[in-house]
């Protein structure tokens, strides 16, 4: 059984920063694509960014471009999301997910961590 556990969420004021971390256990996810998703209240879950085993990330959506940065440490089996210049619209539950590269969809999910940004 593979588990993903997110940490680092919390409440910050607009303009602040948070660093989310996702730790995997059960097996090494060094070959997996790791992604971050978020779900705001009353909205569908949306994809934010993903990173390949080689450290290549997908393009950031305009909503977070220049403010969010994904990174991974294969030796520690972790993936992080650095979030700077946070805005109230970034408020959401953030989820870490993993999929093996040949799969179309993410099939391993964390429980989520709440990020609340106040104005």
Q: Your description of this structure?
A:
The protein has 119 residues and is an all-beta fold. The protein has strands at residues 3-7, 10-13, 18-25, 33-39, 46-51, 68-73, 78-83, 92-99, 108-109, 113-118. Strands 2, 4, 5, 8, 9 and 10 form a 6-stranded mixed beta sheet that branches. Strands 1-3-7-6 form a 4-stranded antiparallel beta sheet, with no helix packed on it. Strand 4 and strand 5 (46-51) form a beta hairpin. It is globular. The chain starts with a strand and ends with a strand.
Helix content: under 10%
Low-confidence stretches: none
Distance between the termini: 40 Å
**What is the rounded Rg?**
13 Å
Could you spell the SSE succession in H and E letters? Answer: EEEEEEEEEE
- Give the percentage of residues in beta strands: over 45%
- Assign an overall shape: globular
Number of strands: 10
| Class based on secondary structure composition and strand pairing | mainly beta
Main sheet attributes: strand count, strand direction, barrel closure:
6 strands, mixed
The total count of helices amounts to 0
Quote the average pLDDT.
95
SSE topology:
Blueprint lengths: L2 E5 L2 E4 L4 E8 L7 E7 L6 E6 L16 E6 L4 E6 L8 E8 L8 E2 L3 E6 L1
Parallel strand pairs: 2-10
Antiparallel strand pairs: 1-3, 3-7, 4-5, 4-8, 6-7, 8-9, 8-10
Name some characteristics of this structure.
119 residues; mainly beta; six-stranded mixed sheet; four-stranded antiparallel sheet; globular
Summarize the structure.
The chain contains no helices and ten strands. It is mainly beta.
């Amino acid at each position: 059984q593979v588990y993903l556990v997110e940490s680092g969420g919390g409440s910050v004021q607009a303009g602040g920063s948070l660093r989310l971390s996702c730790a995997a256990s059960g097996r090494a996810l060094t070959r997996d694509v790791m992604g971050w998703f978020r779900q705001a209240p009353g909205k569908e879950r949306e994809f934010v960014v993903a990173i390949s085993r080689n450290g290549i990330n997908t393009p950031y959506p305009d909503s977070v471009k220049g403010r969010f940065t994904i990174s991974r440490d294969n030796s520690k089996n972790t993936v992080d999301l650095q979030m700077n210049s946070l805005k109230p619209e970034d408020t959401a539950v953030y989820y870490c997910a993993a999929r093996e590269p040949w799969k179309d969809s993410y099939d391993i999910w964390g429980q989520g961590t709440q990020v609340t940004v106040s104005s």
